[in-house]
């Protein structure tokens, strides 16, 4: 541990403080063997970022096994070039003590109370320039804090990150990054700066560090990227010139990722800055082409991208940019000729095949897409292409061909579940429900498992095997908790269809206790029990539903029905019912059954007012499209009110045929309708 002697050298304190420091060092040394044994546990992963600083040999991939750390710094991973010394992910440590004045008795003797509340920085720390602790750094105002990174300071900083004390932690990390051999500390400081500070602040820090460490080549890339991001195009062009002077063929794609300015004036400024550089670098040619594409200056953009492709004809990003330029400039024939040429030159690149295939699918030309997919599947041997081939085959009715393509995917772990799902669909559409059920039961991926298990439940119910249907639902919520609520709701529906209302009620009670804040479960319980609830209980339940999802049309309709039952002339409720009845079919909230219920509410109100023509306006057409018993009864009353006996007789006969309406009633009761 190179940091250990440094702690003793840099913190010249009173004797009791030496004791605490020595204990800390001994603890760290004592725990190292244990850390080696336990690195494979999930807890070790908590300290990965710190261990990379403390242990140069530390391998996080090896130590974490099945629990790799996740990069919390999106900008660093996506928008910056990565080096071997990658930015750290935050850790979750405990809280260190704050620095404060020492405790003394009356005679001035130092009392060590076992805390660090009395810690005083040494002279070296006092001499650190104030700029280190400001929001930004200047290149000539940074002085190393110690000879090497201070372990205690780094621990304190990382603990501060976990507590949300980002400013204090950044101050420590930035200061410690200016010590010797502190590249990893710089990476961590820069990652935090990019996540929590402005591009200008991050650039100031990176520039200061780079100028103190001029031989660190990756820092050139960082400064160039941040300068572009901050809009400092002079600084960006200076750094890019340095990079190209070092390696004229350097890959600049990492620098250029995600930093294209959106403002046309800034785009022109960047283009002007780039014009002063060498023309031989393909990445610079692509950057210029991209800027000109955004400025809709297509001819020079095409010239620059052609120049880049001359150096790197197989670069997919360059090829894609040329396709975009040709498309945006309206040169579609040239675009397709270029795509066909590249498909011939690079037949194994699936993206080139898929460009034309997706175009044909978007145009509805599935037959043409199928033909192209046969070629692409054969040349690329890519599972994504195979899966798309099968999907198009299913859509055009080539079920046997689709199964031929899907079957090999069963041996590809990442595609096994989806292959089973689409094989099940192919057998289902072919009428082989037994094989369809077998494949549906093998579906395991989250995207398709709910639909697959629901189909299995349907197959069991079709055979009147209720026990197996319910067992399938229980297994679904045991294996996939994300779908537990769907499982409970369908389970309760099955019980209700069996007239087992008490069992359904008990099941929903259990589900509501397990998931008390789920509105779907609460609404299902409300629908089941609404005829037995008092108005006060109904109001409480509906208010809770609206609190959970105020815009849900079903909950709004329940609220409207309750309000109209208490006040039939509630104008606000009637307006709400009208708005629900007028939801268009292309609205995500459109539900034909709910719309019909809203129309029935309006029809019943019109009936109560003696406005029979309005009842017909609301319900005649919906009943013809989708006959409904409640809508039919309301219409029947309206026809009677209008004295249209022929329509009464026809509608009554239709209700009797469709819904066995009145078959268990006396003739007098039927006549009342």
UniProtKB/TrEMBL annotation:
InterPro entries: CellSynth/LPSAsmb/PSIAsmb, TPR-like_helical_dom_sf, TPR_rpt. SMART domains: TPR. Residues 61-116 are annotated as: Disordered. The keyword Zinc does not apply. Keywords: Repeat, TPR repeat. It comes from the Bacteria. Gene3D superfamilies: Tetratricopeptide repeat domain. It holds the Pfam family TPR_6. This is Tetratricopeptide repeat protein. It comes from Moraxella bovis.
